[in-house]
# Entry
Amino acid sequence: MAGGFGTRLRPWTLSVPKPLVPLLDTTLIEHSIRIIPRSLVNRVIIAAGYGAEQMRSYFANIDVGAEVVIIEEKEPLGTGGAIANCMAAVRGNRFLVLNGDLITTVDIPGMIAQHERDNRLATISLWPVENPNRFGVADFDSSNRAIKRFQEKPNPGEEYSNLINAGCYLMEREVIDEMPEGPHSIEREVFPSIAKSGNMGGFCYTGRFIDAGTPSSYLDAMRAAIVDGSFNRGEVIGTTWSMSDIGDSSAASSSAIGHGCTIGRNTVVRSSAILDGVTIGSNCHIEGCLIGKD
# Structure
């Protein structure tokens, strides 16, 4: 799912769609694709809107271990409409849906095994949070791993649970029969009826769940990728990943520094993402920043 405008990551997304925003040595959406074991996927379908042509050009020149098909939506369709728009390209009766900015450790083989064992129409990943009042909450029955209903941004003390939708959906093709025509939200207009029928499973997991669509969560994703070693190029020095030689005259921590960057003397970079080709002068203090080349 990669059809949004990425407004919360502007100005980066004024020139590049959010799925192609760099994250270490690759792109945000490639980190999402890596969630799926290669043995389980032979076709990746990207539901694209803004920047669809850029994505076509990009994926025409790289290998992600599977065929990549870009399906463009000419107008915003919502999550449900975007999925329906892609179904002509889906092979087989079962498919997996991921948010295009998702950094997660969800166990896809385990999710598939539970989905098959429980014979569900749909299974969604669930993640525990301390404060569920800002999210959509699932009423989850742990005895049979079923989601009974959903609750949107409940008042404190009225929550069904602390489990929220974690952006990964495993579904049978029959879900399409439940969808209305035109733009719609699958979470609000389709999932509740499936849950009411007893055909919605919930897959709880632990580890990592980051929706990297804001500056702060992007930096969380960057730090997680460094810790997890989710890169093929560059090196980690201390807590910083870098593809540039910044020398000993400056200091960086918990940051990512792209290729061809220059950082001046006595400059400190902390918890920041510096994209390719950026020049930072001397005697600067950079903290909590996302900086791209002008």
In short: The longest strand covers residues 163-172.
